[in-house]
Predict the 3D structure of the following.
Amino acid sequence: MPNVGFGEIISLEIVPSVFEGGWIQFRNGAKAVVHARNMNAIVISWTPTGTGVTAPVTEGKMKKVKRSSNGDMWELELSDQIMSTSFVANGTDTKHRSVGSIDLGNVGVDDRQ
């Protein structure tokens, strides 16, 4: 078993959200949810769109809310300031290695009333 203890981000999603016009859109109170194995810490980062800023912004450190042998669940409530071209989860596993998720791409707040 050569990979025992190595981390893996199994999935990243925003709950609740909708996919519309090429964007994952959410409203206040939505959470980033990650399912992962063997992780010590996970943060959400995103790159602002339309601002000229090219460096990722850290949304915050996720909290482990459920433990399971099939993968732990981590959550973070999202701010209402997100309008991004890149939205990812990155973390450190139990072997102190960096682990990243897929990039969800265009993510933003649906501010329609």
Observations:
- The CA atoms of residues 11 and 22 lie 20 Å apart.
- The longest strand covers residues 83-93.
